Input
Amino acid sequence: MNPVLASWVRTRLRSAPGAACALALLVALTACLAAAFPRAVDRYEDAGLRRALDQARPEQIGVELAATLPDLGLTQAQREDALRPGPLSRQYARALATVERPLVADRAQSAYGVRTTRDLPATDPWLPRPTGLPAQVSLVAQQGLADHADVRTGRLPRAADPVTAATAEVEAAVSAETAESLRIKVGSVIHVPGVERAPLAVRVTAIVTPRDPAGAYWSTQPLLRTPSLVRLPGPSSEADRYWLGALLLPSEAAPAMLGTTGSPWRYWQLAPAADALHAHDLEELRSTIASLESGPGLSRARAATDPLTNVNTDLDEVLASYGRLREGVQPLVAVAAFGTGAVAAVVLLMAGGLAADRRRTELALLRARGASLRGVAGRLLAETAVVALPAGAFGLAAALLALPGARAVPAIAAAATVTAVACAVLPLRAAAAHRVVRVHGGREDVVSVRPSRRRTVAELTLVVLGAGAVETLRRRGTSDSAGDQLAALAPVLVGVIAALVLVRLYPLPLRALARPAGRLRGILGHLSLARAGRTSASAVLPLLALLTALTSAAFGGSVLAGVREARDHAALLAVGADARIESTAPLPAALPDRVRRAPGVRDLAEASITYQARPDAGEQTVPMVGVDPGAYAALAGRTGLGAFGEGELRDPAAGKSAGGTGSAGETGSAGGTGSAGETGPGGETDPAGGTGSAGGTGSAGETGSAGETGSAGETGSAGETGAGTRQEVPLPALASPSTARTYGTRPFPVRLEDGTTVTVRIALVRDRTPAVTGADFLVVDRAGLSDAAARPTALLVTGDHLDAGALRSAAGESGHVRLRAEERAGYVDSPLQSGAERVYAAAVAAGAGYAVLALLLALLRTAPERIALLARLRTMGLTRAQGRRLLILESLPQAFLAAAGGALTGWATIRLLSPGVDLTTIALASTQPPPGETELHTDALSLAVPALSVLLLAVGVAVGQAWWSGRRGSVKELRAGDAR
Output
């Protein structure tokens, strides 16, 4: 830097240290956030990938190279040599070299060896035979047994040198689980069939325990660690089972397998190193695996091992499943990133514009004295860079230290972009304002300035882009628009368009109100409107920042609220209430009272659920639920799952068999007819008109033990026929739409699991019901069921802050307890979901913070002029209270415009984009809710809170300015204002 330029920079920094510190703080904070975003995304995506690999079985994610020995072309000695450790080790090393990044093999868990591909029957009589079938074994000679196992009993097996196909006996080890299941001890000898020779004797010399049972060394072939009880394939019964275990031979004993019927294969299993795999390499990973399975990678693997080698892995399926989850989350996070980035960019532009306006007179004087435009811009760039470059580096370092373990290049690029923008804003803004030499400028308020043609063209271009983005998002949706930056920019563009429209409309109401206000007696209304109309036309930037931030906050808040609602509703559908206690057998009679006394329980509904009810005596089964209509109707109404009226489901005959007449022939509790044949409460005469022995009439003229007659003249214990079939008035039933379509509204019998039959008639149709899930169900009054079928098998509990421990203690061993809160927490089964939510919430919060900063910058820009104005007006008799009201009234039009416009724009954005936003992936991952359950809906708090905050902040700043100006003398303020 030349001495003149250095002297300029030092002088400017000394003359305005506060502005330099504020710029440094703004750049450091913005660079830190910009650098932190890609690193945070990398961290949660990598964590999600590792979780997906951990949840998959090692045999799924391992890459196995396997090769048989050719039947022809090799002598017996060559075949034996091919199975020895030396050649296998060299082939293993070459196989590892063929694996290309980003796929990295975990050498500690990778292995190679020889195994039999056909299970060998062991006819030794002491081996267990659960169903009479002999046990079978698999011979495995896997390298590295001593490094991955601890010897519990005996010693590790050794091999005589050399072992051939004719060797009569070899040594082996077995895992502790295999030894326990197959009753193997150290010294046991197991004989397996030979080929053209006597059976091969395998002597067990060690019982070992795996050091890392879940590691790929033991779990890629689980049989090495854990034996299995194998069921014979085909239509055989469950009794046809036998034990299958693995005998672990030393590597040098592998040639002995050639003398058996096991058909040995060589294999090289490569375990991927999960910590070395990264989500940003996902496409390259999938390409590498595809190449290994059937491409150039397979050719290299065969060249390294054997021409007959095949590669098998399910890692590509695991990665594809993770990729679908990632693609569903990425677009929503991109929306938040673009929204926050746009607001941050506007704030940086505002900061540069504020500095240029503050130094307008100085720069105009320099230009008037002959300074070149390039020279002025260069000096401004130098003084800004001296502040911004160290601040940007500090912000980048903070992000790198706070979020380790992620890529540095995207973070450096983001921080460098922020720093470059901060350096360039002031020089470019000054060059644009002073390209023509002038001392005095014209008025630039929103009322007098007319938009230029260039501005009109730019605004129309943004409108076209915004409309295209919205239509793209609505048509393709977030689930199909991964990587489509235009779709991710849709909310931001809607906010930009709204800001431009509002800035054009803003002068109209001011002009309309200025004249009526001028005829008022007070001066505050007219003066505040005039002051609001004199606001600089450059107020489009603060309004743009506010509207973009409010739109992003409303959209982001609605997304987060929609995710919470989707999980809560899915958990409610799964549980049916706040908690559920269910058993396959009837619950104890005392359990409901114990549950009611548990902390937080407000109410419960008992339900007897028969999952195998058979309507019309057919083969199709439908879940049938017996409930108490009052409690169940209250539960359905509270949860919103198929609400209905209590009386619509109640059994019309429930009280008649127990109700009879009073002493004077009055109506019984269920509407039975007295001696004078009075009708029941429904106003209908009994259809059969028969009278019970106590003057009560049964619902169908049947007499049971209380005087009801069975339909065939037989007397049952409770008005039922001897066969246990209820033949009175059908029970009204609540059914699903599919069940109603199948059976209609006619009465039809339903046979229950206890052998009884009940006649029902579908009276209500609801899409859902709390007790059961699925497309088919029937709900009836359990008072109409037999005593056995009516006993409750489930309790549906409602309440706030339920104590899971207390509920499980009350239930004991009698039922399984499920809580809605635990079910909801289970839907977040990947760090990809939780990480995306945290980043989304942080982006929304950062956008809101930048919006507040934009509002403060806009108010700070006009603060000196406002304070000077108050000082002048006080010399003319304006009181302090009037000064406060003037500043509040002056700031309200813009604040109200931003708040109302932001809320309206946010609402419109959500309404426009909701058809294309799918929250299923981020909310529920693999769980698929019913259609329409995860659509984006407007969240009232996300609209109202940011808008009200803008109003309160604007009023608070106005009050603060009035208070501050009142503390200082008018003369001092006038001098300060004149100086400015």
In short: Residues 584-653+721-814 form one domain. The two ends are 31 Å apart (CA to CA). The CA atoms of residues 93 and 111 lie 11 Å apart.
